[in-house]
Amino acid sequence: MRGTNDLILRTTTAFIAFILLGFSVYLFFAGHNKPGGGFIGGLMASAALILMYMAYGHEAMGKVIRVNFLYMVFTGLLIAVATGIGSFVFGAPFLTQNFGYFQLPILGRTELATALLFDLGVYLTVIGVTMTIILTVAKDRPEVDKANA
Amino acid sequence: MEQTLEITQSLIQVSAIISIIGVSLSVMILLYRVIKGPTNPDRAVALDIFGVNIMGLAGIIAILLVSTQFNDVILLIGILLFIGTIALAKFIEKGVIIERDMD
After folding, report:
1. Interchain proximity B79–A44, CB inside 8 Å
2. Would the pLDDT of B7 be above 60?
3. CA distances to B26, B44, B74, B76, B99 from A51, in Å
4. Strand partners, A113
5. Which of A40, A54, A148 to substitute to test the interface with B, most B CBs within 10 Å?
6. The pLDDT of residue A146
7. Which chain A residues have any C-beta within 8 angstroms of a chain B C-beta?
């Protein structure tokens, strides 16, 4: 049986996945003063990944992205807990957040907050959980697929 | 002069409300196609245009509320709509959404 041709979908995915990942990073950094944050940014990043999985298939993406998404959940939770424990070093209560103004090379005077590190943990956890759920649901029938091939 | 100023100020609000009524009518006509549509691709296309109308509605409401916080939401609706429509199209076409290997 001749397979269908996915040329248009694959070409569009190559462009749109970059826009989606850039929008996800924008939402992640804009979350402090505008709508956005780690949760919706992580959902956008996993939407980009799912679009690439839909266009290129499971095996090809498994070769490109060699990340176990369960470990990504673990890393995100570890970062979130570490930012909470880090406040003990300065003698402050658990999960105390602080911020300061720094002179960065290109951006100029910027407000950097430790809440961003906590948000990074949320971001990684959301990507890991979403991708684990969807990929586990997607590959639950190995026998049927082999019979069709 | 005062009266002219008031009329021009209310112009944006009145036109936004008229646009909301127009988009709502379009959504209702699309709802008929979603419920009645003879085949599944008809329903998929109707749901796709549904999302485009909702993007427009969010834009008009952002004008009505004089807020720029909705811009991200409009972009978000567009992206999720695109991915949802591709997933529906792949399901109708091939029966699976994420394939194991694609030759």
Report:
1. yes
2. yes
3. 29, 18, 19, 15, 12
4. A99
5. A54
6. 52
7. 3-4, 6, 9, 16, 20, 23, 27, 30, 34-36, 40, 44, 47, 50-51, 53-54, 56-60, 134-135, 138-139, 142, 145
Q: A9 contacts in B (CB within 8 Å)? A: 86
SS3 per residue for chain B: CHHHHHHHHHHHHHHHHHHHHHHHHHHHHHHHHHHHCCCHHHHHHHHHHHHHHHHHHHHHHHHHCCCCCCHHHHHHHHHHHHHHHHHHHHHHHHCCCCCCCCC
Residues near B79 by beta carbon (within 8 Å), at least 6 away in sequence = A20, A23, A44, A47
- Measured between beta carbons, which residues in chain A are less than 8 angstroms from residue B93? 4
Contact A30, B71 (CB under 8 A): no
The Cα–Cα gap between A101 and A111 comes to 5
pLDDT in tens, chain A (149 residues): 456 678 898 999 999 999 999 999 999 998 888 888 899 999 999 999 999 999 988 888 888 888 889 999 999 999 999 998 988 888 888 888 888 888 888 877 888 888 899 999 999 999 999 999 999 888 766 555 555 54
Q: Which residue has the higher pLDDT, B87 or A139?
A: B87
- Closest-approach residue (CA) in chain B for A143: B100
Strand partners, A88: none
CB within 8 Å of B16: residues ≥ 6 apart: B60, B63, B64
